[in-house]
Amino acid sequence: MTAASERLPTGAGRSTDPRRGTFWLLTLPSAVALGLFLILPILFMVALSFRADLSGQLLAPFAPTVKQYAKVLDTGSYWNLLGISTVMAFGVALVATAAAYPLAYFLAFRAGKRAGLYLILLLVPFWTSYLLRVMAWRLMLDSSGVVNSILIALGLTRDPLDLLYNRGAVVVTLIYVWIPFAMLPILAAMGRIDVRLHDAAADLYASPWQQLLRITLPLSLPGIIAAFFMVFIPTVGEYVTPLLVGGTGGSMYGNIVQAFFVQAANWPLGAALSVIMLATTLLLVVIGLRIVQPRRLLGQ
Amino acid sequence: MHPRRSLTTTQAAFVLFIAAVVAACGGSGASLSPTAGATEPGATQAPPTATPTEVPPDKVTGSLTVLEWPGYETKDFWPDFGTKYKNVNVSFQFGSTDAEIYGHMKASPEQYDLFHQYTGWLQFDVDEGLAMEIDTSKLKNWDKVPDAFKKIGQVNGKQYFIPWDWGFTSILYRTDKIPNVDSWGILFDPQYKGHLSMWDDGPGAVTVSAYVHGYDETNITADQLTAIQAEWTAQAKLNKTYWTAPSDLESLVNKGDVWAGYSWQGSYAVTKGAGTPVAYANPKEGRNSWVGLYGISSKTQNYDLALRFIDEKLALLTGQNLVNLYYYGSANQDVMNGLNDPAQADTFGGAETQALLKDTFSIGDPNILQHTNFTPNLTADQRDAWTAMWTEVKAAQ
Question: Is ipTM beyond 0.85?
Fold first, then answer.
């Protein structure tokens, strides 16, 4: 939005506005990249999902068929797994966001001059490979791992507990992996809060909890919502962590997509499963945003 | 925001979207034409006779790109070629499963000169025109390969692939937990609930069920597949976990979490070498055996050089390294005969290791191959149906 004094009259002088050229200069590279590396691959995937099989040239014309979608619709266990994966992703996003909030709060309002240092320390795990971080949890949860060793040493259990190779292990590992990610948008939102609002609230005898609930939480809501969806959306299609720590009963929807691409070379069926996951996730996000209504919560 | 700018942005986004759709449909050829996809005209025949060059190997130049499994790119697995052809640059691209190797070749065969595929997938490569017929008269080491292995590399009566590595699949089990295993059925025994481990592979699961029930592996009916799915859905509750890499299984067996697992012979050698009390079963239904082979890409521009690479892959030192480092069998029979020769003990790391390797490959059992089931080539329908079955087994947990 521009200030009234800066608005140009309709049709007057627009062609000489230097900002127009700058707008295209700044926007076009990103738009092209987005088109090439996001939109185009998704369109390829959608097209692939209408192939009967992978025989023949990949880029040759083909007779489209809904055979793959019929197969998916006909297989109840795929939908069951999609539902389970969605619930798991919801749980992971909820807990990761809730766990990240106090971290972001501390960095934004309590860390003072050391905020930068603490932020770097919190982000150090990112400097290691994602696989190493997941493998670390295998060492933690294994039958002879850290957790079982402590429990046995404390006499809380005689035999090792089955902490690894189940859905619980997948959820715990994913929460751990996502907390630093979730913290960042919340921190960014809190960074925009004017601290004088807290001072004003304190002057009006608001307790710290009241300041949190009446000022900080509402104003950081965009960050919370962004963090939640930033974790939820990719977690629905997660497959690496279930593969490493999920065992027999810990598969997620992403694992069956991966199986059709990597083990079966049945790309069309894998593509159909991916399109369904994409559509389902988008639908859930739209429904979620309608329910939450961030603008209404912010009083806009 | 200026209202006309908003409209212009929308127009720009719409134009971009249309451009993307046009690019996807037009340039990609994914137009919804009623014509079915055409198979590439067979570029599978060997090129016109390439007269062997007289240039000494160390003066030969050029480059090769090999589509390979991770780990085989190290010079340990091509020392003969690397030493002889010092001025040839060999680069590697990777695939971690047969499906990935096949997928890479489908997507861009022109990027590779050679690719490494395993039994079960060879027919697809030939049917899709990805592999070139190989002129074995130019392979100096071809006579070291047993006829049975040579035949495995033939598809439609022609030699499209050269065997290189091979191995067994059977049950690896801890002898301190299970006294004896004589059947693949151990994987379904509820007595060992929570201490079993199966390979995460649909065709592997179908193969096991075929052995247990006496099904014809090359002709599994729909009813049989339904029964197999039910069987493995129930088996999942007995499983500790599905393993994807042999090191996963080896770690679980060494720790005692898994007492019996579907396994390749390399895992037996590793766990036994670690001092774990293990045995490698000879099930009454027979072991399974698989072979890894090299094919030459139908789009290669370096056919002659690719032939030389394959020839040197069959050479002695390369084969010995395969046995010593990975505990995989070599298609070079001289290498395998060396396991029986006490004079070659040092080649295999000493008498004890030689004995372990001899045991691993059942060299002492002259009848082992008679009761071994070799992996047949799958059809595309079988591949799709068996993998779909397996994903439904996992999705049902």
Answer: no
